[in-house]
Structure formats: structure tokens, C-alpha cells
Amino acid sequence: MSTPSRVIGVLGGIASGKSAVARMLAGPQGRVIDADEIAREVLVSPAVRFDLLCAFGGDAFDRQGQPDRDAIARAVFGSSEKRAKLEAFTHPPIRARIRAALEAARRAGVPRIVLDVPLLLENEASHGLAAECDEIVFVDSDEAERDARAVRSRGWRPGDVARREATQMPLAEKRARADRILENRGTLADLEKAVGGLVAR
């Protein structure tokens, strides 16, 4: 009889290193289910492109006719009404794909499945994914460093991290809901060592 897959949820602030931790936790034999990657796929699907055009007009697309994630983000993070409109037609297909990927990984006997889902707790009532986790890990990192990281790697403006997190569950609450806390305040080697210790336990 095969050993059941272990499902691990990863939480943390924006640009805290969640994706890196997710990859390390999964390891070569595991699988990461990346909600942001799935969201990008959903955004360019024909049905959602049509909904984007109807909801936001041509401003939601770049010169090549592709959905402009930065323009969409600027629009929705400044308006709860626009954000709700976007989520109404993007979240259902994103959730369906995450759920399908989770079940496929379980059927394949993947030993560790890591859910890198930023709104794992916020939208729990809709997707039920937090309840699927055997363990939830919170990646803790300094706010100033996270903001600087987002400016460097994502081209965001200073302060964007705090502005976007204001629309989400407070980090203190996410931290309290986690089973384990993983500090990310040093080098990549430090983080790898910390994750290795967590996997060993």
C-alpha cells in the first residue's frame, strides 16, 4: 500500500520567499502547485480575456494584445469594487485548476505536495484548500526587505507591498494559524539549511 501524499501549505507576506521555500520543501520528488502561475494561465485563456475586455476595456491589455498584469493590478488594488469584479471571473477557474492539480498529484503518489497559494486562508470558505493541508508553514521576513525585494525583482513602487497587503488577512493572523514558522532573514544558503531542517523533522 502506497504512503498517502503529504500536503504542505506555504504562507507569508508578499516577496517573503514563499515560492523559493515551496520549491525547497517539495524537493526533486515533490510537486509545487503555484497559484500565481495558474492565475497567469487563466488570465490568457479566451473566456477570461473576453471578461477582461468587457470589465476593464482595452486598458487591461498591452500593445501585443496580451493581458497587462501590471495595469490590471494598478486598477484593482485601488478599488475594492474592481477587485471584486476581477475575482468573480478569475477565481473560479483558478480554484478549479488548483484542485485538479492537487488530485492529480495525489493519484500519482507524489510524496510531498506544496500549495503555494497566497490567499490560502483568505478564501478558505470558497476553496477549502487549507483544510487539505497536513501542515502549514509561514515564511517570516522583514517588511522593509520584502518591499525592497519587490522593487528590485518585480519593478514595483516603494510601498506597494504594504498597500497590497492591506487588502489581505493580517500577517500576524496568518502567522498564528501556521504550524511552523520559517525565518527568511539571511542568505539563500541560510534558507536552504532552515528548510532542510524542517523537512528532516
How would you sum up this structure, described in words?
By secondary structure, the protein is an alpha/beta fold. The protein has a domain at 6-36 and 92-200: P-loop containing nucleotide triphosphate hydrolases (Rossmann fold). 53% of the residues lie in helices and 13% in strands. The protein has 10 helices and 5 strands. The chain has helices spanning 18-26, 35-43, 46-56, 69-76, 80-107, 124-127, 143-154, 160-165, 171-177, 188-200, and strands at 6-12, 31-34, 112-116, 135-140, 180-183. The protein has a 5-stranded parallel sheet, sandwiched between helices. The longest helix has 28 residues, at 80-107. The protein starts with 5 loop residues before the first strand and ends with a helix. The model has no long low-confidence stretch (mean pLDDT 93).
Concise description?
By secondary structure, the chain is an alpha/beta fold. Helices cover 53% and strands 13% of the residues.
**Average pLDDT rating:** 93
Instruction: Specify the overall morphology.
Output: globular
Order of helices and strands: EHEHHHHEHEHHHEH
| Record field, number of beta strands | 5
Unreliable stretches: none
Task: Please identify which CATH superfamily of the domain at 6-36 and 92-200 we are dealing with.
Answer: P-loop containing nucleotide triphosphate hydrolases
Q: Can you tell me the CATH class of the domain at 6-36 and 92-200?
A: Alpha Beta
Q: Helical proportion?
A: 40-55%
Return the structural class. alpha/beta
Number of helices: 10
Strand order of the largest sheet: 2-3-1-4-5
- How would a textbook summarize the main sheet? 5 strands, parallel
Radius of gyration: 17 Å
